[in-house]
Amino acid sequence: MFFDLYSDELKETLNMISREDIVKLETMLDEARKNGRHVFVLGNGGSAAAASHWVCDFGKGINVDHSVRMKIFAPSDHSSIFTAYGNDNAYDQTMVEQLKNFLEPEDLVISLSVSGSSGNLVEAHKYAQEKGAKTICIVGDYNGKLIGLSDFPIVIRSKNYGVVEDIHIILEHAISQDIKREILSARQ
Q1: Whose CA is closest to 137, among 154, 124, 121, 120?
Q2: Fewer beta carbons under 10 A from the terminal one: N or C of the chain?
Q3: Is the pLDDT of residue 188 over 80?
Q4: Over 80: is that where the pLDDT of 24 sits?
Q5: DSSP code, position 95
Q6: Could you give all domains of the chain from N- to C-terminal order, each with its CATH number?
Q7: End-to-end Cα spacing for the chain
Q8: Which residue, among 164, 140, 159, 153, has the nearest Cα to 50 in the 3D structure?
Q9: DSSP labels for 107-150?
């Protein structure tokens, strides 16, 4: 049955992810939260939906009482300005032009991508590095351009778009829930 094959592939791919990379990603996100840095999560298509999901879980889900909140945004959520830049400038400018309004040194720019070579994400990473922001990518195993443009690349060892996109969500669920757990335990 295909479901079993898919599930097996997902499990095998999850097992190949470096646990040290997961800890580093969580540390970078939590430090950004604690230090009031902006976190921008970028993606196209299914990865744009995942970026929105990251914003929901880190922007709302981790909050406890008066905890320090994460300043997290997904530029693809802003359809008016996103499509205006796509129409009036070029599609590869849809993310970078929005970053120009908000990005500050030491902020985090995280790109979620299967190919790792989407033009609008590549341009955003170039700009972020010029401005002294930290860049992270979580990409499929296609040797994409984002890998070389990221301070911290995580390559998911799969070319299956579904598996890569599932892992985008699994990572954020595990990390956001752990950050919330840490916040709660610090209050006790």
Answers
A1: 154
A2: C
A3: no
A4: yes
A5: T
A6: 2-186 (3.40.50.10490)
A7: 47
A8: 164
A9: -EEEEEESSS--HHHHHHHHHHHHTT-EEEEEE-SS--HHHHT-
Name every residue whose Cβ is closer than 8 Å to that of residue 43 and which is 6 or more positions away in sequence: 49, 50, 51, 74, 76, 111, 112, 113, 121, 168
Residue 93 has a pLDDT of 98
> Which amino acid, one-letter code, is at 29?
L
Count of CB atoms situated within 10 Å of the CB of 11: 10
Phi-psi region for residue 45, left (φ > 0), alpha (ψ -120 to 50) or beta? left
Q: 């669920």: which residue's tokens?
A: 173
Classify strands 71-73 and 134-139 as parallel, antiparallel or unpaired: unpaired
The candidate with the shortest Cα–Cα distance to 153, out of 105, 99, 180, 117, is 117
Q: For residue 39, which of 112, 90, 91, 89 has the smallest C-alpha distance?
A: 112
pLDDT at position 4, please?
Answer: 98
Which one is predicted more confidently, 162 or 66?
162
How many CB atoms are closer than 10 A to CB 73?
Answer: 20
The packing angle between helices 161-186 and 46-56, to 10°, is 10
Asked whether residue 187 carries a pLDDT value surpassing 90, the answer given is no
